[in-house]
Amino acid sequence: MAIAISPRDQTEFVTKADRELPPEQRTVFLLRPLTNVQRKLIEDQSLVMDGASGQAMPRMGSVKIEAVRACLIGWRNFCDVDGSPVEFQTEGKRNVLGVNVEPPSPTSINRLHPSDLAEIVDEIMAVSRTTVDEGKG
């Protein structure tokens, strides 16, 4: 029996560096999986043909940001260097990769350390694959 998946499922993610901290000190990122449509759109956008060489060239930077815009839905215990909480700001309702969401603002995305951003993207992709695979029944 096939089991339906929900694009509204949420998961909590803690970066590798924070996993060593006591639970109350960890930053928790709230993520949702990509939908099947979003995954396919990302696949379509991840390569672009180079006009001069005719070669397919990876275009991962913007694709990764789109995945974060589609799937990062909040955070807890995320602080700046002074220990002040960083507010999660959104752009309001927007269509991101074919789905209406409230994506994080560029300001919020820019507050993420590049290594944390990379881990978040990896987790989004892993959660999205797992969710789709689990839905196969």
Task: Report the sheet-strand fraction.
Answer: 15-25%
The count of strands amounts to: 7
Number of domains: 1
State the end-to-end distance.
6 Å
The side-by-side strand order for the widest beta sheet comes to: 1-2-5
In this structure, how is the largest beta sheet organized?
3 strands, antiparallel
Tell me the helix content.
Answer: 25-40%
Structural class: alpha+beta
* Poorly predicted regions: none
| Overall radius of gyration | 16 Å
Shape: globular
Number of helices: 4
Mean residue pLDDT: 85
* H-E order: EEHEEHEEEHH
Structure notes:
This protein is an alpha+beta fold. It has one domain (11-130). 35% of the residues lie in helices and 18% in strands. The chain is built from four helices and seven strands, in the order ββαββαβββαα. It has helices at residues 36-45, 60-71, 106-110, 114-134; strands at residues 11-13, 28-31, 47-49, 56-58, 72-76, 94-96, 99-101. The strands form three sheets. The chain has a three-stranded antiparallel β-sheet with strand order 1-2-5. A hairpin with a 6-residue loop joins strand 3 and strand 4. Helix 2 (60-71) crosses helix 4.
